[in-house]
Amino acid sequence: MLSIPYKYCNHTTIAKIWSIFAIISLVLIIWYVSAGTYFEFDALGVWILSCLAILYISRKPMEFLSEFWCKVVIFFGVGIVIFSFISLPIGFTHSPYSIGEYSILLSGIGLILFGMLKFRSYIFPVLIPFIAVAGYSSYELFLRNQDWLTAPLVPVTTSISVTILRLIGLNPVVHDNIFSFMSVSGETISLTIVSDCTGIMSLGTFTIAAIIVLISFPVSFTWKSMGLLIVGYLGTYAANILRIILISLSGYYFGPVGVMEQVHVNVGWIVFSLWMIIFWYYFFTRQVGIQFFKKRGQVTG
Question: Residue 298 in 3-state DSSP?
């Protein structure tokens, strides 16, 4: 038999075990295998939302798969697992092995597990990270030959960043998508705004997170939530502008090497992660009605 009798399983316990295993294994992959880049932390964020969705759904009555769909889900799970091992050789993902390939593998394992348990309610949340990685990889392949997609954002991002820097007092000189200014030590600092600097990856991650939340928490699908999501997109883009400003300021105060290089590598995911935590905490508590912390004096039975 491909399925496991439900009497041997508790879908709430399974959800907790799966979430703990997924997050711990992903952190270990980032720590020991990956380089801890922006993409790795984006992928981890998608998995955290996926696990939150599964934990939330586990509090509700489980919807089960029929025998036919049980076999279909397991079949696709096996296919995704196999695909995770060939994605590098066929050029769909890039060397070295990272959280992207592991996310594909983990989604496949999740499909097999929940297919065997017939847990229909968990199928989509566990599939979302695979869709995210596949979407990003496909998008990356597209961008290799289609830079025009982000081209309209380059002058806008440059103009906004330069305007803010002038208000701060750095007085940058602009030429197309390149601006330069003098550091306090008299060195010339030059920054070039390219497609990666437009925040397109952050906007993509936010879009995936929004899709996960809206599908997993239908109660949040209101006109107010749509307005909040617009604020979320503006905030995500603003976080990218803040990243550029912080990189510029680090160059202004500390010069073009050393501190500026470290800020360029790390400030992006730090700012974006903080924004995601603040926004989604507000969204979940106000729109979904989830309380992450007990109110003072609250007693639970």
Answer: coil
Residue 297 Cα to chain centre, angstroms: 35
Distance, in Å, from the CA atom of 18 to the CA atom of 13, rounded to the nearest integer, reads 9
Which residues lie closer than 8 Å to 32 by C-beta, 6 or more apart? Answer: none
- Asked if 126 and 110 touch (Cβ cutoff 8 Å), the reply is yes
On the CB side of 212, how many CA atoms lie within 13 Å of its CA?
A: 30
Structure tokens at 72: 């279909």
Is residue 50 within 8 A of residue 19, CB to CB? The reply is no
Pull the structure tokens for residue 120: 């229909």
> b/e string for 241-279 if b means 16 or more Cβ within 10 A?
bbbbbbbbbbbbebbbeeebeebbeebbbebbbebbeeb
DSSP state of 42: H
pTM exceeds cut of 0.85: no
Given a cut of 70, whether residue 145 has pLDDT beyond it is: no
CA distance 26 to 56: 20
Asked whether the predicted pLDDT for residue 222 surpasses 90, the reply is no
Distant-in-sequence, close-in-space partners of 136: CB < 8 Å, separation ≥ 6: 39, 100, 201, 204
- pLDDT for residue 136: 77
As a whole number, the mean pLDDT across the chain is: 84
